[in-house]
Design goal:
Oligomer: single chain
Structural class: mainly alpha
Order of helices and strands: HHH
Strand content: under 5%
Length: 96
């Protein structure tokens, strides 16, 4: 038996695998964060465009639409299609 001779091959492989696993986790966090950031920015932009569109539609078409919470929620969620639906319902005489 030789004193001082250690088998460190397994420890080195374990450390390399640990470093690769940490790098993979960090990469996935950044990738998911980027997707979530784009989603949030898209929802905010869609909401702002929807509110601007409903104000302009009310001004030019004189529909008498008052901005309330029950109108802002579908506009914020669906954006321009929500505005189109609300304007169409108002033009058809459905109380909105």
């Amino acid at each position: 038996m030789v004193v001082g001779a250690f088998n460190t091959g397994g420890a080195v492989i374990g450390e390399v695998l640990l470093i690769l696993a940490i790098a993979l986790v960090i990469y996935l966090i950044f990738k998911i964060g980027k997707v979530l950031f784009k989603l949030v920015i898209g929802i905010i932009a869609n909401s702002i465009l929807g509110i601007i569109a409903i104000v302009l539609a009310d001004y030019f078409l004189n529909l008498g639409i008052s901005l309330s919470l029950k109108l802002i929620i579908p506009i914020a969620i669906f954006g321009l299609p929500g505005v189109g639906t609300i304007v169409l319902l108002k033009m058809l005489g459905v109380p909105v």
